[in-house]
Amino acid sequence: MGDDLGERLEAGLGELLQRRTRLGLYTDLVAGIGRGLDVSSYPLLSGLARMGPTTAGRLGREIGLDRSGVSRYASRLEEGGLLRRSPDPDDARGTLLVLTEDGEKIVSLLRQRLALALTRRLTDWPTAEARAFVTGLERFVRELRDDV
C-alpha cells in the first residue's frame, strides 16, 4: 500500500468535514421545507433520527454542538412540529428530545434527497469503482466506530 494513502485520506476527509462542504450538501436538502429546518438545525434533526429519543447533552456530544446550541435549534424544530420534548423515564428532572411523526416523515424525505444527490455525484464513475468506493467507505466508518 502506498505511503501517501494516509495523507491523501486525511486531506480528503478534512475537505469533506469542513463546514462549507457540508453546507453545500445541506442547502439543497433543506430547501423549501421550512418548519425551523435549515442548514444549522439539519445535523440536530439527522442526529436525533439516528440516535432515537435522547437528551440534549447526549445529542450535542454526538453531533458536536454544546447543550445550549442543541436547545436553541431544538426549540425551532419543536415550534415547526418536527420534534417534541418528553419526560426522561430514567431521570425525573430530565427531558428527552423525540421526533414527531412529521419529523420522521421529513427525515425520510431528507434521506431520499441526500441519497439522490450522492447517487448523482457517482453517476459518471465506472460502476465497479463506485461500488468499491462505497463498500470501502462503509468498512472504514464501521472500523472507526468500532475503535471508539
TrEMBL record:
Annotated InterPro entries: HTH_MarR-typ (IPR000835), MarR/SlyA-like (IPR039422), WH-like_DNA-bd_sf (IPR036388), WH_DNA-bd_sf (IPR036390)
Record-annotated HTH marR-type domain positions: 10-142
Top-level division of the source organism's lineage: Bacteria
This protein's name: MarR family winged helix-turn-helix transcriptional regulator
The species this protein was found in: Frankia umida
